[in-house]
Amino acid sequence: MASRTTAIERGEETGPTSRRSGRLVYRQSIWTRLTHWVWAVCIFFMVTSGLMIFNARPDLYVGQQSGFGFDNTVLSIGAERTGDGGVRGVTRVFGHPFDTTGFLGVSGSADNPTIRAIPAWATIPSYYDLGTGRVVHFFFAWILVATMLVWWISALVNRHLWRDIVPGGKDLKRLPSDIGDHARLRFHHTRSYNVLQKLSYAGILVVVIPLLILTGLTMSPGVVPSWSWLLDLFGGRQTARTIHFVCMLLVVLFFIVHVLMVVAAGPINELRSIITGWYRVDDEESEEEGAR
Amino acid sequence: MSDGPSFNRRRFLATAGAGASMLSLGGCDAFDAMLGQNDRVRDVLASANQLTYRAQRLLFGEEALARTYAPSEIRQQMRPNGSTSPNQDDYTKLQKNDFADYRLEIGGLVDKKLSLSLDELRNMPARSQITRHDCVEGWSVIAKWTGVQLSRLLDQAGVKPQARYVLFHCYDSMGATLEGVQYYYETIDLISARHPQTILAYGLNDKTLPVSNGAPLRVRVERQLGYKMAKYIRSIELVSGFANINGGNGGYWEDQGYDWWAGT
């Protein structure tokens, strides 16, 4: 194992070819592959339209209501006049101001700055239109919930959830060595996910996306009269809105790391497995299987 | 207009956003062209709102009450939003006289037309509730509302079987078009209209409803977003549909592309 070089050391291009000796295993079921790509589309449209909706009131609060006559703001994105007659973008996190000119609060070119919380390139639609942002967001919300339902049923029936996603005691024991491997960009290509993969997939699928759906429902005045436990669970509509936003950030973070890891671990092999299901494992796979 | 998105800010940001979208190179503006009003892609996406309406009506009880709060939760003034000072002559004339000459007309598909003064409304059994107002923009404010249940007035007028929606005509102008002055208007279905917490409010936080919050009368529809809760109510009409009223979408903001149900 120690003699094995990493994908990065060999370069991305040569990575998969130099492992030709490894056999192909059927790693991803049709349900995993289908839901993966539907989610990819959903998350793109939901994050961008959600940022449009956020632009209507780019402030986050804790509690049941928004403090206008008192202060319960935890995040606020705005613009301020500067002494020389210009504007600068200011993002306040727990009251601490950060200059975010060019990105948050004020974006666009220096000669023609635009005052808006989230810049146009990150929202759908790119122009300010709350009504249209809501149309896009709620359409993909239904698709996301339906896909989630399909995934839960299939993952429970084909045991994908317990076999591949939720980490067990053995996985957790490997956590320190797995963190070390990731830090050195050493990737083992095996049938099963490594423990950091399991933790991040379980975190997104079992924790973050369900939280996004539940906090979204908590913000709905048509839902909470009947499901008022949601208001108690999240500590109020405005806290739910804040959690919804934080979960969105986690999804974006996951997406960035996920794509970087795919590139680092050998994009051709990884993409083949999530499109066709077939994944080329390392030669040592037989030993790994035995260890499990 | 009701507590919908602020008109001036919306217009300002729309202009600012349009400028930004011209500047952005290959961002999310790639989808802008499909999302304009009356575009087919947009219509398909918007059909999900009908699903949301039906799902919420199916899953959740017609009588379920919106959460009410303790008086200690009233920690600030009710935030005025949308129109805050209508300047139409017929409204300012009523305002000068403290709305003593105001009459609420209830007509349309009813057995008996009603015309009620504010005193007559105040002398009817009142209902007070401390509830959370949820604006479509994302903010919420808790306030105490006092008024008469709309169901009581509907029973007095007698709703004809073919009536399906309650239409609120308002005093506040949203600007002029070629067809004339565009007044704020809204529609709700009869389930919302007959909900026990749906009241025509004349009181806010134990005082007379101020002009900025919709005096003399605004509707509270506690299980839907703020823009459903029409302010400055001129008259109420029972209708069988709203396809032929103004933009045909059942409300001022709905005609601007906002969903009619507004339960999410």
TrEMBL record, chain A:
User: InterPro entries under this entry?
Assistant: Cyt_b561_bac/Ni-Hgenase (IPR011577), Di-haem_cyt_TM (IPR016174), Hydrogenase_cytochrome (IPR051542)
Q: Which GO molecular function annotations are given, in alphabetical order?
A: electron transfer activity; heme binding
Q: How does it sit in the membrane?
A: Multi-pass membrane protein
Recorded GO cellular component terms are: plasma membrane
Q: Which domain of life is it from?
A: Bacteria
The entry's protein name is Cytochrome b/b6 domain-containing protein
Q: What organism is recorded for this protein?
A: Pararhizobium mangrovi
Which key words are in the record?
Cell membrane, Membrane, Transmembrane, Transmembrane helix
User: Which segments constitute the Cytochrome b561 bacterial/Ni-hydrogenase domain?
Assistant: 27-277
| One Pfam family from the record | Ni_hydr_CYTB
Segments spanning the bilayer are 37-56, 135-153, 199-223, 243-265
**GO biological process: any one?**
respiratory electron transport chain
Automatic annotation (TrEMBL), chain B:
Q: Which InterPro entries match?
A: OxRdtase_Mopterin-bd_dom (IPR000572), OxRdtase_Mopterin-bd_sf (IPR036374), TAT_signal (IPR006311)
Fetch the CDD domains from UniProt: bact_SO_family_Moco
Q: Which organism is it from?
A: Pararhizobium mangrovi
Which residue intervals define the domain Oxidoreductase molybdopterin-binding in the entry? 96-239
- Supply the Pfam families for this chain: Oxidored_molyb
Protein name as annotated: Molybdopterin oxidoreductase
